[in-house]
Amino acid sequence: MLVETSDFLVAIHNTARYGVSLVELSKFQKDLATIATSEVLPDKEWFHKIKEVAQIKDRKGLQTLLKEYRNCFTHLANYPRKTMAIIRDESEERISAADLRNSDISESIAANLREFHFLEIPSSIKKVKLWKIMRELLHTAQCKCTKEDVKEFSLDTLKEEIKMLENAISHDSQEVRRCHNDLQYGNIAMDKDGTITLLNYECSTHNPVAYDIANHFCEMVANYHSETPHVLDYSKYPDLEERWRFVRVYLGHKEYFPTNAELERLLNDVEKYTLASHLLWCLRGIISNYLEVIDFDQEGYQRKTFIVEVTDFDYMEYARQRFQQYRLRKRELLVNSVH
């Protein structure tokens, strides 16, 4: 793999402006070695750092940089350029909340999500991270919250609740893939030709695909660009026909024809995993209310906390709505669900 990293640096040196030192580019050798031996993907900022050092001035040069990267790191050859979203077409714009209800756009999102889930990543350990992350969030919330918050959200008993939910909806036959985990409309772009691109993988970890779809469905009730961005309208949760269409396209991607039994099984799992989505984002809302958010590394582990700017977003009210929805749907969805 180190040969590949050297090849990449030489290739970039050859395309760089005259006078750029290969020694300067070698500063990226450690990063490249990590990329070559793991599933960690570089982000857009990382590429722009190399662009600055190599004094690549135009978009064409940056595209050449990415091409050389893909040529050298052959184990990432299966990553579609648009799915990586490292260099986006400038004609692409993020879609709106209303766009999620467009059947054509929704079907395209389903197909793109399936493609993302099936990207082959070498040495990737398919271990579900959802429950570990949720417990870490709970611990942080318990440390930050007031006694009133602990009582309102039952934080003192939520550890047992999370364990109960994990036992109730997890099963051996569920499909586990690397998931996006935050597929809201702000993380989806569309170009002038209607081509969809999934963006921002900060929360990406291995999880049941049913959870990723469930989280996307839950995001369809939000409009973060309204006058009250924290208010969720659950009348906009996709109806059975919309959910069925999404799952049918998702499972039927690449000319596979799913049976009705397969569709129903995934739909049932998706509905149950909405409960996990409600709890996880409830906890994130509570934590964000104290002007801190959780930062995750590529594997989804808590890395650090950092201060964020105060906005008009009422995080605690958002958390209340997610928690209330969890309670409302829990009894309905968990009947005879304990495995």
Largest sheet at a glance? 3 strands, antiparallel
Q: What structural class do helix, strand and pairing data support?
A: mainly alpha
Discrete helix count: 14
The CATH architecture of the largest domain would be Alpha-Beta Complex
The average pLDDT value, as a whole number, equals 78
Global Rg = 22 Å
Strand content: 5-15%
CATH topology label of the largest domain: Aminoglycoside 3'-phosphotransferase, Chain: A, domain 2
| CATH evolutionary superfamily of the largest domain | Aminoglycoside phosphotransferase (APH), C-terminal lobe
Give the SSE string: HHHHHHEHHHHEEEEHHHEEH
Protein name: Protein kinase-like domain containing protein
Keywords: Kinase, Transferase
GO molecular function, one term: choline kinase activity
Family: Belongs to the choline/ethanolamine kinase family.
Descriptors:
339 residues; choline kinase activity; two-stranded antiparallel ribbon; mainly alpha; kinase; ethanolamine kinase activity; 2 domains; 7 strands; 14 helices
Give the arrangement of secondary structure elements.
Elements: H1 2-15, H2 22-25, H3 29-37, H4 44-53, H5 59-72, H6 81-84, E1 93-94, H7 103-117, H8 130-144, H9 147-152, H10 158-169, E2 176-179, E3 188-190, E4 196-198, E5 205-208, H11 209-219, H12 240-251, H13 260-288, E6 292-296, E7 302-307, H14 315-333
Antiparallel strand pairs: 1-3, 2-5, 3-4, 6-7
